[in-house]
């Protein structure tokens, strides 16, 4: 009888010089990585973070603490290497690229930025769809191509888009049915009246539509960066890469990706539990248990980058750690 790969992976892990199960969730992670790459000797050397940036029409409703121009300014900060995501990427040895998925205003026309603009920001989803079905399909397709491109072992997706916690909450609500009381959070740091206002806006926006298919929900309430992230996750999973999922907004994209292409779920490793209040509900909808809980609430892929060393270590355990037989260590009695 042929062993399945999952059984073979577990057997190899159990033969390593340690009490069975003693590396806990690192063992489960190692199994998952082996399954994603279809081998008992996975390679986990190279990680890339792609940051997708776009603007949101819903920002006009005062749902963020920060003004919309910060999206554009932060794109330039990423390109200059000065943002948290740049610092963490350098610190953990990950590559980083930045995609303009649809920032307000004119194209940047600057060196080093990947231009995949679907439009100059979405429309406000308070009064109509954030984007057309065609724009949504184009964003998914551009993302899918970026996810499939290159030869990274693991990929992470970050985002920058003022007001995108509002979009992620609305999208998450339509995809899961979880209430906006649960899913609406403070984002960049709204105070209590700001949070109440954001929730009221989202309740009105959600009442505009009934039940929606996943891709319809993405077009109605998503953002260009969220749709492109979802597409990238699908493309990367198809290419046999580990997909490291960051915080609240990335998880809303992950949920859309899994609803559109269910096989994507198997490639996903959930990096951390964000401080954003709705994150737990989106993680539950994906039956996801994140690796870290560090009270992060930034996005950009920062949490995903911090999880990369754990993922790399899990693969190294599988490929480099001695077995009892290799090392001449006596096994369990
Ligand atoms: C300087 C700055 C850097 C950021 N980096 C990520 N975000 C995060 O905050 C935004 C979402 O929060 P909200 O929905 O409240 O606008 C996104 O751009 C997200 O990536 C930032 C926000 C700011 C202000
Ligand atoms: O969890 C996140 O991704 C997040 C939370 C707050 C603001 N921006 C991003």
Automatic annotation (TrEMBL):
EC code(s) of this entry: 2.4.2.21
GO molecular function: nicotinate-nucleotide-dimethylbenzimidazole phosphoribosyltransferase activity
Keyword Iron: no
Keywords: Cobalamin biosynthesis, Glycosyltransferase, Transferase
Pathway assigned to this chain's UniProt record: Nucleoside biosynthesis; alpha-ribazole biosynthesis; alpha-ribazole from 5,6-dimethylbenzimidazole: step 1/2
Record-annotated active site: 300
Family per record: Belongs to the CobT family.
Protein name according to UniProt: Nicotinate-nucleotide--dimethylbenzimidazole phosphoribosyltransferase
Organism: Rhodovulum steppense
Gene expressing this chain: cobT
